[in-house]
Automatic annotation (TrEMBL):
One of its GO terms (cellular component) is ATP-binding cassette (ABC) transporter complex, substrate-binding subunit-containing. Keywords: ATP-binding, Nucleotide-binding, Sugar transport, Transport. GO terms for biological process: carbohydrate transport. This is ATPase component of ABC-type sugar transporter. The keyword Nucleotide-binding applies. Residues 4-236 form the ABC transporter domain. GO terms for molecular function: ABC-type transporter activity; ATP binding; ATP hydrolysis activity. The keyword RNA-binding does not apply. InterPro entries: AAA+_ATPase (IPR003593), ABC_transporter-like_ATP-bd (IPR003439), ABC_transporter-like_CS (IPR017871), ABC_transpr_MalK-like (IPR015855), ABC_transpr_MalK/UgpC-like (IPR047641), Mo/tungstate-bd_C_term_dom (IPR008995), NA-bd_OB-fold (IPR012340), OB_MalK-like (IPR040582). It holds the Pfam family ABC_tran.
Length: 356
């Protein structure tokens, strides 16, 4: 039995606002599960439901086999870390870290011991312990917030966009630290972010939400390489996957003037969505088959690579993006692009579901 279970959760604020439709997810000890999705898809609501800050309209939140629906937040034995740190401004860092233990009337000696362990684990300088939160940098404040969550030794950790207020460099550094720290806790970690890089790098599994509905629940590898539908395909990966609705003619999908062999399908539709990641579209060599030709209309220099946007011949609304090494040269009037068979993703037009 998984440590944390969400069973058929539905959350309605009113008949029109239903941020979670019917969500079931299990999270085991040692798992790092990330809810990811665009703004308003219901990520924070899910976390708040687990913490007990919101009540589900239907369904159950279960921790250690026990239904938590009627258990108030303070008694759920979960720790939550917020984007805004939520530190007490009038308390010193040490008091902030100790606060969940004080509430539980933990003996002073044990509090000191646990603070010293957590300070060491997080590499927090001892000199910071006497400061007030306003005297800390953003990164330090977030470490203190994480320390406060760890010191409590909860059954489940919840983190709501904890890195969003940090600048890009610091975010990368704290991200790596978080991964290490939570790996050693061997408890379920539920993390929320809208940042797909964070989701990919931190998680053992990703739950991608859209409009309150789980689109895919899988490892980062599966989500990236076998997206369940065109929404997942477009959301995960940067630069974004090329996704084009194209007409089918015989056994081919027509990308402008060029026929691309369709996968094996029980029935050939009149239209289909072809997806291919920019890093999989490369400048064609003589051995490539099914080459697509077009004109370069935009070049974005990314340092190590260049991102080309190519207007496909014969398809005014068809543009392909190709990520190629920065030192590769090309003829802007006519580039030939290869779309390797194994890198192609196919989705149905109506629902966007993966076809192969
Ligand atoms: N207390 C509330 N009353 C009514 N509607 C709410 C309430 N809290 C959230 N919502 C709505 O529920 C939906 C989901 O909100 P939620 O905060 O879970 O989204 P999110 O995925 O975390 O978004 P973001 O990334 O912007 O934080 C939104 O449409 C939001 O406006």
């Amino acid at each position: 039995m998984a440590k944390l279970q969400l069973k058929n959760i539905r959350k309605e604020y009113n008949s029109k606002t239903v941020p979670i439709k019917d969500l079931s997810v299990d999270v085991d000890d040692g798992e790092f599960l990330t809810f990811v999705g665009p703004s308003g898809c219901g990520k924070s609501t899910t976390l708040r439901l687990i913490a007990g800050l919101e009540e589900p309209t239907k369904g159950e939140v279960i921790i250690n086999g026990e239904t938590m629906n009627a258990v108030p937040p303070g008694e759920r034995n979960v720790s939550m870390v917020f984007q805004s740190y939520a530190l007490y401004p009038h308390m010193r860092v040490a008091e902030n870290i100790a606060s969940p233990l004080k509430i539980r009337k933990t003996p002073e000696g044990e509090i000191e011991q646990r603070i010293s362990e957590v300070v060491q684990k997080l590499d927090l300088e001892k000199s910071l312990l006497d400061r007030k939160p306003r005297q800390l940098s953003g990164g330090q404040r977030q470490r203190v917030a994480v320390a406060r969550a760890l010191v409590r030794e909860p059954e489940v950790f919840l983190l709501d966009e904890p890195l969003s207020n940090l600048d890009a460099l610091l975010r990368e550094q704290v991200r790596a630290e978080l991964k290490q720290i939570f790996k050693s806790q061997n408890k379920p970690v539920v993390y929320v972010t809208h940042d797909q890089t964070e989701a990919m790098t931190l998680s053992t599994r990703i739950a991608l939400l859209y409009d309150g509905v789980l689109q895919q629940l899988d490892t980062p590898y599966q989500i990236y390489n076998y997206p369940a539908n065109s929404f997942v395909a477009g959301f995960m990966g940067s630069p974004q996957m090329n996704l084009m609705t194209v007409n089918c003619k015989g056994q081919k999908a027509m990308l402008g003037d060029f026929g691309i062999t369709l996968p094996e399908l029980s029935e050939i539709p009149s239209q289909i969505v072809l997806g291919i990641r920019p890093e999989d579209v490369h400048l064609a060599t003589e051995t490539d088959e099914e080459v697509v030709t077009g004109k370069v209309i935009l070049v974005e220099d990314l340092g190590k690579e260049q991102l080309l946007t190519v207007q496909v011949e014969g398809g005014t609304d068809k543009q392909l993006r190709s990520l190629i090494p920065a030192d590769q040269s090309w003829n802007s009037d006519q580039v030939h692009l290869a779309l390797p068979v194994h890198s192609r993703h196919w989705f149905d037009v109506e629902r966007g579901n993966r076809l192969s």
